[in-house]
User: What shape does this take?
Amino acid sequence: MPVIFQSPVPIESEPAKQHIPVNTPVAPSSVPASKMRPLTTFAVNPDGVRFETQEAEEDVILFLRQHIIVNVPWIIVTLILASAPTIIFPFLFQLVHLPFAIPAGYLIVGALFWYLATFGYALANFISWFFNIYIVTDQRVVDIDFIYLLYKQFSEAELSKIQDISYATGGIFATVFDYGNVTIETAGEVPNLTFDKVPHPEKVVETIRSLTEKGGGGI
Amino acid sequence: MISPVVPLAFLTIKILALVGLSVYAVFAGVLVRQEQLMADVLEEAFEPILRILTLIHFFGALGIIGLALVLL
Assistant: This one.
């Protein structure tokens, strides 16, 4: 269509409205350092955390563990085991009549070993949870897994290699306590990373996304 | 009258208990070593407390072996 009239002075247009998403992540560098506690599961700019292959100029932006609620099953088992010598065993001994008396030494050693093994069970589970960590730095994403205390898996992906990131929550507990799995898909032969049962998965996704956008990443 | 089988059974239980406690002490030692390796991966303030707990567990396992040798 031919232009009939063209104004010599351009019409003053309205200033472009900036679209600000409702769920905008807080810039990690502007967040004050989080103080680390023994049971910390989610920390932005954590204070005093270093990991094995961290480089001198690399800063930890996000430190994650599995949500603390995942420890409940082994804590319940530990409580049952700990109460067994005083509650369950006397009840069992009343039901089963042995033809001989058990010497006191056996009872003492047996009871002490039972408590020690219970303590060992709880300790092994706690250590396993404590050292299974997920770290997001300003350069990469790191997943450190210890499986059955004897198998260590160290996975990492550079922020520039991240192609897609998503999260999934499901179930009553995950909904109530706000935790879920974050999946990070990477380019090339680098394996995908999964952060299992981490708290606030939406914040994790937003933070990684903002870091990759800041660094000109693939998302 | 106590059957002669009973002392033999207790001796068997004693040997088995000592073997089991020794195996458990090895597990406790592995836990100490593993905690050290994990601490190398992640440096955190709470780690010394965990190390003390694993050492208490290990020496507790050794102590029970000694106790079993005396009492059983």
Residues 72-128 of chain A form one domain.
